[in-house]
Amino acid sequence: MWALKSFYHYSGRRYGLCIHDDGSLEPGAIDALAAHFPGARIVRRMQADREVPPGLAGYPRCLEFRRTNLLAPKVFDFAHYLSTDRMLLVDSDILFFSRPDELLRRIDDPAYILNSVNADCASAYTVESDEAARRWGIALTPRFNSGLGVIHRGSLRLDWIEEFLESPVAAGHFWRIEQTLFALTSSRFGVELLPEEYAVRLDGEVGSAPCRHYVGDIRHLMYGEGMRRLVKSGFLDAV
Length: 239
What we know:
The chain has helices at 2-11, 27-36, 45-51, 60-68, 73-80, 101-108, 129-136, 158-165, 174-189, 221-232, 235-238; strands at residues 18-20, 41-43, 86-90, 94-96, 115-119, 144-152, 191-193, 211-213. It is of the alpha/beta class. It has 11 helices and 8 strands.
């Protein structure tokens, strides 16, 4: 709720919204999201579990990955329900504090054909860059973070993902597999990182950055720093 409200407030945009439930949302939470975002599509996990797998029938590794990894729907479901050629991907642990001008420019420019995401504090993949170069001839973009960015539908090709899952990619830490697949497909498709003010940082304060991604190690700061800052700015009165 805070991620979406802060983005729409500071961006001034009214992009179409699709909210994906990971299976943990209770009916009251669904009702609250529907009330605050009446035009949104809310895809329940049970619905997606019925509708997405048939499209993966020809890709057994993709099908197994989606069945066994909690984050896999980001790779498959987002594209399945996408009604345009690109999407703005926003994780729920991101807060916005001012207008994200460069992000908006890349979203709104029809000639912008690259994927573009926030930089991680370090590369966090299940495959090394030299392995990606040797196996697939891919120059793996370092520090790719799959929490925020512009992703083109054409980059999420199932044949590519099936190919990557045949390798040691699928044997690493469970939350890094999804990010690795996004990094591999984007590196093959074409990608550049957002400016450094969008990057994941584990220390320091927000400062003049337009947003902050409160990843696991600093999740507590989403409340003690981020929401506190928004409340003091009068954000709640404005939305």
